[in-house]
Amino acid sequence: MKKSLSLLSIILIISYNAFAQPANNNCTGAQSLGNLPTPGACIAGVQNGTATTVSGTTIGATATSPAVSILNCQGGTADQQAPALDVWYSFVATGTTVNVNITPGSPALATPNIGLWTGTCTSLLAAGCGIGNAAGNLTATFTQITAGQTYYIQVGGNTATSSGNFNLSVDNDIDCNDCLSAFSLTSSPAPVYGAYTPGQVVTFCYTISNWVQQNTNWLHGVQISMGAGWTGAISGAVPANTVQNIAGPGFDGAWYFSNTGLGTSAGPGFYFETVSGGTNASNNFGDNGTGTWTFCWNLTVDPGCSPGSDLS
């Protein structure tokens, strides 16, 4: 009798361990990678940061509920899988570019899918997504990252039931040739679990807090582009103010909103204009001021949109 009870206990323990949920099964329990190692000081070109690497698994994980996912991964037509058995990681950015690499463990997580998010776990904002290959390898680079901000990485498979082991590596870079080195984008109200409701009006504000002029690359325009889940109409546009001060009396230039953009060269958005260029914003250098620029506008969710529509 003792032998039978011992054998039963061993079987139960092994079964429990095999199907235990990962500690980072949910966004709220995301495994923190802390502050990523800071890239080198800006001298020229790209300064690389040291990678932070961890081993992970989606074996025993459950799908995030309600499901959250990102469309058009890395500028392509493939979308992040949802629902998926997924796990979560968080980090604080120290550069303007983040590189995410996944290599396979054993057994491998085939065709890994990742989502990069900002915000909070109940108000996630999409920052990008990536899809790996069948062998379990993935390499994805995301730009326009804000240093000091917390980001979340969602890792899952390419079907609703696939799972496996993987190695995750994350590092930050700074491109010293970029003019735009610090910015933020806010939305009000924030999305609930990454989603808005049909017909909802959302106010976005884009703030540029650090523009480093390279040669004569002055700040000239902020173009607005949006996914198919919006109506396409832009309302309530509020341009930024300029602190440019051209020597002598007269007009120093101003920002304005254009629903039509600049012909075929740029779409709807905010553009800088000077009096010397007439009414054509494309024939001046732009805003040579320093400081902070904030641009705000409203978008409306298409009342006829379906679940999963692109609200990027």
Distance between the termini: 63 Å
What structural category do the secondary elements indicate? mainly beta
Helix count, DSSP H or I runs of 4 or more residues: 1
Write down the CATH topology of the largest domain. Jelly Rolls
Q: What is the class of the largest domain in the CATH system?
A: Mainly Beta
Share of residues in strands: 35-45%
Strand order of the largest sheet: 1-4-9-6-7
What is the succession of H and E elements? HEEEEEEEEEEEEEEEEE
Low-confidence stretches: 1-17
Nearest-angstrom radius of gyration? Answer: 23 Å
- The number of E-state strands comes to 17
Shape: globular
Query: Quick check: average pLDDT?
Result: 85
* Helix proportion range: under 10%
Largest sheet: 5 strands, mixed
**What count of domains describes the coordinates?**
2
So, CATH architecture of the largest domain?
Sandwich
Task: Please name the defining characteristics of this protein.
disordered N terminus; globular; single chain; 5-stranded antiparallel beta sheet; 1 helix; 5-stranded mixed beta sheet; 312 residues; mainly beta; 17 strands; Jelly Rolls; 2 domains
Explain what the structure shows.
By secondary structure, this protein is mainly β. It has two domains: 2-175, Sandwich (Jelly Rolls), CATH 2.60.120; 180-301, no CATH class. The protein contains one helix and 17 strands. It has one helix at 2-18; strands at 31-35, 46-48, 52-57, 87-92, 97-104, 113-120, 123-131, 138-142, 150-156, 165-175, 180-188, 201-211, 221-223, 230-238, 254-258, 269-273, 293-301. It has a five-stranded mixed beta sheet, with no helix packed on it. Strands 2, 3, 5, 8 and 10 form a five-stranded antiparallel beta sheet that branches. It is globular and about 70 Å long. The N and C termini lie far apart (63 Å). Mean pLDDT is 85; it is low at 1-17.
